[in-house]
Amino acid sequence: MLKSEIAVFSVAAMFICNDSLNFRIEIITKNYIVKDKILIAYSIPPQGLLELEKDFDLIYPDKEFFSTEELIERIPGCIALLSIFNKEVPKEVIEAGKQLKIISNYGVGFNNIDIETAGKKGIVVCNTPEAVCEPTAELCLALILSLSRGIAKCHHGLKTNSDFEWGVMKNLGTRLQGKTLGIVGMGKIGKSVANKAKAFGMKVVYYNRNKIDNSSYQYLNFTDLLEQSDVVSLNCPLTDETHHLIGEKELELMKETAVLINTARGPVVNEQELVDALKRNTIAGAALDVFEHEPKIHPELLQMENVVVVPHIGTATIETRIEMGKEASENIISFLIDGKEKNRVN
């Protein structure tokens, strides 16, 4: 494994000194360290990059982020790229990185990166799976609560309608206790969601590519999970196999009283078929943090009272943003300085 190379060179500086009217020239030699360059694709909190800054020269964007053209222009002299989950790293950028050895993605998803091209060029690609786990699981539970208890609906109603109805039999929702939560994708985020849901008294079942040994939660095949769950939570990565994992056929399997939660990736759900199912009352509602063509959202979703939408904020806490920076930095330091691969995904 190659380590980061630090070039050291000497320069001579001449200073003229006045010593009892006699001029003399002193040659002072100083050492300067030239650090390898790392391109930071997005303006993220610098607190998360302090360790990286010690050993490398970090190139930040002047504005919010570098465009694709700017990445192509600046990446040739860089040894690493710290990319971000919502901005693409296409083939053209990777091929322009003549010295590029590693791409550390700020986020758990990495479908924004051309993995095939990176692999062909021998470039390591990493992600940040640890930092994103708890905040994403928290948001998942928040969406479940908001949808089941009508929090978003009531909030909007009170703020926009002076005649919004109050009453003992108005604005009724459903409780979580005793309900079945079906988790699709029992990775770190899925497990955290399961543990939090258990505290609400929910029965947790799961479907995963591989059954987990010694799990305290019941494994069901995909069809059984859809048929039995009151809440279906998508916590799986986006892959060729999970693209449009949920569509008309799968929604038809769910209970009419069930709801769908997506904090995974937008294209895991066929958005048009979800809209059609909601219009037919095939399921009771949906809560979505991610969208198939984000930042564009299907306009009909925005008009439905039984749909809660938020703008991809699963990891959007200041603490998490700093921790993600630290984890992305550790990936780079581990590889370039310590010769170890951490969180590699390709």
UniProtKB/TrEMBL annotation:
Any one GO BP annotation for this protein: amino acid biosynthetic process
PROSITE patterns in UniProt: D_2_HYDROXYACID_DH_1, D_2_HYDROXYACID_DH_2, D_2_HYDROXYACID_DH_3
Molecular function per GO: NAD binding; oxidoreductase activity, acting on the CH-OH group of donors, NAD or NADP as acceptor
Keywords assigned by UniProt, alphabetized: Amino-acid biosynthesis, NAD, Oxidoreductase
Domain D-isomer specific 2-hydroxyacid dehydrogenase catalytic: 39-346
Tagged with keyword Acyltransferase: no
Ranges of residues in domain D-isomer specific 2-hydroxyacid dehydrogenase NAD-binding: 141-314
Family designation: Belongs to the D-isomer specific 2-hydroxyacid dehydrogenase family.
Protein name: D-3-phosphoglycerate dehydrogenase
Organism: Marinifilum flexuosum
Organism lineage: Bacteria, Pseudomonadati, Bacteroidota, Bacteroidia, Marinilabiliales
